[in-house]
Every structure is written in structure tokens, then in C-alpha cells.
Amino acid sequence: MFLCYYFSSLFYPVLLERKDRDGYMCTSKRFDKSYKIISNKEICAGYFELKIKVDAVSRYCYPGQFFMIDIPEVFLRRPISIHCIGKGTVSFLYSVVGRGTKILSEMGRSSGSVISRRGEGKDGCDEIKMLGPLGRGYGLTSNASSKFLSCVSFDSYEKKSCPKSRDISFNPVIVAGGTGIASVHFLATKLSRKGILCYGVHSKKDLLCLDKFKKMGWEIVISTEDGSKGYRGYITDVLSENLKAGDTLFACGPIPMLKKVLRIAREKNIKGFVCLEEKMACGIGNCQGCAVKINGENKLTCKDGPVFEIKDVEL
Ligand SMILES: Cc1cc2nc3c(=O)[nH]c(=O)nc-3n(C[C@H](O)[C@H](O)[C@H](O)COP(=O)(O)OP(=O)(O)OC[C@H]3O[C@@H](n4cnc5c(N)ncnc54)[C@H](O)[C@@H]3O)c2cc1C
Ligand code: FES
């Protein structure tokens, strides 16, 4: 089985990128091809989980990375984070916000009232074209992250170049806002330690993945803006009381939430990473459309990020 995966991967269009000129570690391979959609289920109103058969490509996916998804009838590909990987599969968790994600939500669904054949492949299965995995994920941002790297289980990634020790003590605190939960879920499945998930949404109907985090043994703190579950207000209102010296923060969500996370982390001198979901057009560093200020320099979210160290980010 392993040999099958290995040899089939040799024939994919591959771009090798082990270390870039700044010495940063990046994704080792990226692929631009069509895949079969296994399922595209509405898990609750307006939120979908899309599962794709990617075979060997799943071995190159790392928490915090994303794919640019080619959606029929829309001009630009849309960036969506890797939500989880299985044996030869990649899943995405996305919300329907505009035309692209609306069309995406109709792909690969042939039951109920929605019978869509957009992107139909040769054998009748829906196919989807994607470019990725792209970007630098959690812990791949700089050499300073080596302590963090040691804390992640690298079952499926860069076996040779990453340390595997799991005995460094660190306490992860994940902060997720809205669909930011998608990328941090994949991270949580790979961290060697469980910690606290601080998760903020508009209303309790927007809460996703709670069972998955509970099953993994994470403590969960919830906030809703309408007060329908947990603390009434923003998750950053209750973040300080859930943080202690030595914790490591991982945050993904809307920019206003991330700004507050950065302020709190700096006040408390806490290290960690933020994942920026800037608007993207090309996703591979060609259009310069996703520039952010990192350590006083312009960097590209798609290529240099989307995950950056808290100490470097200026929002
Ligand atoms: C690295 C990254 C990871 C992401 N991961 C997820 C995820 O896991 N789940 C999820 O639900 N959403 C995710 N997003 C946001 C998602 O890309 C947008 O919701 C989506 O592109 C909207 O497309 P649309 O056509 O439906 O909306 P429209 O508003 O019609 O999109 C128009 C244009 O704006 C861009 N755009 C719009 N909103 C965003 C946004 N918030 N971020 C980036 N580009 C945007 C689109 O790419 C497109 O070019 C991610 C964004 C980035 C940058
Ligand atoms: S999206 Fe084009 S450079 Fe980042």
C-alpha cells in the first residue's frame, strides 16, 4: 500500500520547496490537479464539510496550510484551510458567504433537492481542481519555532527533517473565531498535548467541531455575541483569565479578534502563532495582493504565512 502511494506520487506535477532563501521551512510539495469529491455535507445551516480523495497528497498537508480551490463559474480560486486529513483524504470546513462558496456547496451533492453536476468527471463523480497544500503552517514560520516543532506529532509530514520528541512541556491555548476553527482543528489533531480551546462565534448555531475537540480531550471555553451559549460577548474578553505564563497561543479568526489576541499575548508575554486569513487572489506569491507587515517588512500572507509568530505580526 505504502509503495503504491509512493510511486503514484512520483507522477504528480510537483514543485519541490524544502527551505526557501530566508532559511524558512515550507511545504515540501504542492500539487495542481483534479480530485474526486467523496462528500460535501451541510453539517449545520450554512456550514459544509467537503471531503476529497487526494491519495498520497494527504502526506504533504500540514496544520495551517490551505488549498486554492477552483470553483466552476467564478474567476479566482478560493483559499480554504485544511480542516483534517484521513487516509488519502483531505477535508475542508467552510461557510457559505458569497458566490464562490455557494457554488462550492452545490458540488458533489446528488441527494435531496440539490442535484448538482458542476465539475462532473468522466465516470459521473464530481471532480474538483485544487492547488496545494500551500503556505507555511503553525510552527513552520521560523527557526525560533523549533521548540514548538518538537511538540507536534509528525506522523504524516517531513519525517526526516522534523524532530519527533514529544516530551517538551508546553500548554497549548487555541483561540478560534468563527470559521477559524477549521484550521485549528487540524492543528489540535497533531499537537502532542491537549489544552484549552477558547472559541467565539455569533450565536450557538455557529458552533462547529465541539464534539471533535471534546473527544480529543480539550477543555472548551465558549463565547457567543448574542449570549445563546457560554459567555456573552467576545472570546477575547475571557482570554486573559484562561492564559498563564508559559502557555503557547495559536489563534485563527477575524482580524479584530486577532488584534486583541496580539495585545493580550504581548501584555502577558506569551508566545505563539496567528493565522491570517487575508483576501487572496493567486495564493502563490505572484499578485502581491495579500501583503501584511511582519517585523517591519512587507510579507505575503499566502507565501510567507498564513501563520506568523505573534512577536512579528503588526496588525
Ligand atoms: C488562508 C485562508 C484560509 C481560509 N480558510 C477558510 C476555511 O477554512 N473556511 C472558510 O469558511 N473560509 C476560509 N477562508 C475564507 C474564504 O476564502 C472566503 O470565505 C471565500 O474565499 C469567500 O469566497 P466567496 O466567493 O464565497 O465570497 P466573495 O465575497 O464573493 O469572494 C470574493 C473574493 O474575495 C475573496 N474573499 C472573500 N472573503 C474572504 C476572506 N474572508 N478571506 C479571504 N478571501 C476572501 C475571495 O477569495 C474572492 O476572491 C480562508 C481564507 C484564507 C485566506
Ligand atoms: S494572493 Fe497573490 S501574492 Fe498572495
TrEMBL record:
Lyase listed as a keyword: no
Family annotation (Gene3D superfamilies): Dihydroorotate dehydrogenase, electron transfer subunit, Nucleotide-binding domain of ferredoxin-NADP reductase (FNR) module, Translation factors
Keywords: 2Fe-2S, Electron transport, FAD, Flavoprotein, Iron, Iron-sulfur, Metal-binding, Transport
Residues engaged in binding FAD: 78-81, 100-101
BP terms from Gene Ontology: pyrimidine nucleotide biosynthetic process
Keyword Iron listed: yes
Domain Dihydroorotate dehydrogenase electron transfer subunit iron-sulphur cluster binding: 277-313
GO MF terms held by the record: 2 iron, 2 sulfur cluster binding; flavin adenine dinucleotide binding; metal ion binding; oxidoreductase activity
Domain Oxidoreductase FAD/NAD(P)-binding: 175-261
Cofactor names: [2Fe-2S] cluster; FAD
Cofactor note: Binds 1 [2Fe-2S] cluster per subunit.
Binding-site positions, [2Fe-2S] cluster: 282, 287, 290, 302
InterPro entries attached to this UniProt entry: Cyt_c3_hydrogenase_gsu (IPR012165), Dihydroorotate_DH_ele_sf (IPR037117), Dihydroorotate_DH_Fe-S-bd (IPR019480), FNR_nucleotide-bd (IPR039261), OxRdtase_FAD/NAD-bd (IPR001433), PyrK_electron_transfer (IPR050353), Riboflavin_synthase-like_b-brl (IPR017938)
PANTHER family in alphabetical order: DIHYDROOROTATE DEHYDROGENASE B (NAD(+)), ELECTRON TRANSFER SUBUNIT, DIHYDROOROTATE DEHYDROGENASE B (NAD(+)), ELECTRON TRANSFER SUBUNIT-RELATED
Family of this protein: Belongs to the PyrK family.
Name of the molecule in the record: FAD-binding FR-type domain-containing protein
Origin species: Endomicrobium trichonymphae
